[in-house]
Amino acid sequence: MRICGRETCSERPARSILAFLAFGALAVAVASMTVAPASGASGPPAVADANPPAAEVLYPLPGTWTYSTNPTLRVRFADPDGIMVSSIRMDVDGLRLTLSAPSPGTVVVAYGYAGATLDGTHTANATALDQVGNGPTVLTWSFSVDTTIPVVVITSPSGNPVLADGSVTLAWTGTDTGSGIDRYNVRLDGGPIFGVGTATTFPFHNLTPGVHYFWVTAYDAAGNYNYYSDTAIAIATVPAPPPPGPPANATTQVTVVVPDQIPSWAVALVAINAAEAAAIAWVALRQRREAP
Questions:
Q1: Quick check: helix, strand or coil at residue 214?
Q2: Is there a domain that residue 191 lies in?
Q3: Same structural domain for residues 128 and 168?
Q4: How many domains does one find in the chain?
Q5: Is 0.70 surpassed by the pTM of this model?
Q6: From CA 129, how far away is CA 48, in angstroms rounded?
Q7: Is 265 among the domain residues?
Q8: Residue 231: inside a domain, yes or no?
Q9: Inter-residue contact 138 to 61 (CB < 8 Å)
Q10: Contacts of 45 (CB under 8 A, 6+ apart)
Q11: What is the DSSP letter of 17?
């Protein structure tokens, strides 16, 4: 055996072969860590999403009013990795809400049921993670509750007046201590409803004779309205027109119908009466002539 330094010459080829095999195994391991693109696809390998879910308030919207004392909050979460449904939380003024169980997916709408909520402004929160743990996304917003019904008072007409010309201008006042008056509706009898915005007068013309009822309904910004209260109803009467009078320079015409067969005694009586009338007229005329 020939000695080459500290090792035999026959050991050098063996060590070279082992080094080559180790390098090849390392290359295979590195290649296996590379994610191959799908068949027919090109471009860099897919990278996991690191963004938290997107979120949007659906109800009640930020800064708005609701008339419900038990509002149901709705929030939409979206993420390409899917939403972790078990991570969703919602609360109002720090009180955790009972949630419905939404189905898993990339877009989820969560419903939170609030308990008794008093009139006024409230703060809500909603949070969620995606399926790979990104987040949580936190939404915070405020909304207000108003359960007070508006008050409407009709000022004209008042006391069931008589509208001689069949016209009247309906006038009223409206107040609301919560969210404020949003709009008014006006109605005559059982006819169509007229939206008049925030105006407080509305004219009516050419009303038919009879009794008429006028209604005013107020809606506030939260959706409350006054249910046709007694002060929001007015009554007025249009008189019937007078009967037509006789025409000017009227003459009366009398028609006498004489039957075809007149009894003979009736003819004689008429003749005698005519003779007597003529005699009386002649005597009177003669006496007038002989008078001095």
A1: strand
A2: yes
A3: no
A4: 2
A5: no
A6: 15
A7: no
A8: yes
A9: no
A10: 34, 35, 36, 37
A11: H
pLDDT at site 230 = 83
Query: How is residue 114 annotated by DSSP?
Result: -
Last residue of a domain, one of 99, 124, 145: 145
Strands 65-66 and 137-145: parallel
Parent domain of 89? 54-145
Tens of pLDDT, residue by residue over 229-277, are: 888 999 999 999 888 877 766 555 655 555 566 566 555 554 556 566 6
In the numeric block, which tokens belong to residue 50? 């690191």
Peptide bond into 45 cis (omega under 30): no
- What is the C-alpha separation between 54 and 40, in angstroms, rounded? 31
**DSSP H/E element including 289:** helix 264-290
Residue 79: half-sphere exposure toward Cβ, Cα within 13 Å: 25
Specify if 269 maps to a domain: no
Mean pLDDT of the chain: 81
| Token pair recorded at residue 23 | 């390098």
The reply to whether 128 and 179 lie within a common domain is no
Tokens 């609360």 sit at which residue?
A: 91
CB count within 10 Å of CB 259 equals: 6
Give the gyration radius of the chain's Cα atoms: 52
Which domain CATH number covers 232?
2.60.40.10
What confidence tier does 102 reach under pLDDT thresholds 50, 70, 90? Answer: confident
What is the residue-wise DSSP string for 151-163? EEEEEES-S--B-
Q: What is the CATH number of the domain that holds 75?
A: 2.60.40.1220
User: Given CA atoms 166, 167, 173, 176 in this order, what sign does their dihedral have?
Assistant: positive
d(CA 82, CA 102): 12
SS3 of the chain: helix, strand, coil, percent, to 5: 20, 40, 45
Do 74 and 135 belong together in one domain?
Answer: yes
**Residue 82 · residue 104 · CB < 8 Å:** yes
Which residue, of 145, 180, 208, is where some domain finishes? 145
d(CA 274, CA 21): 167
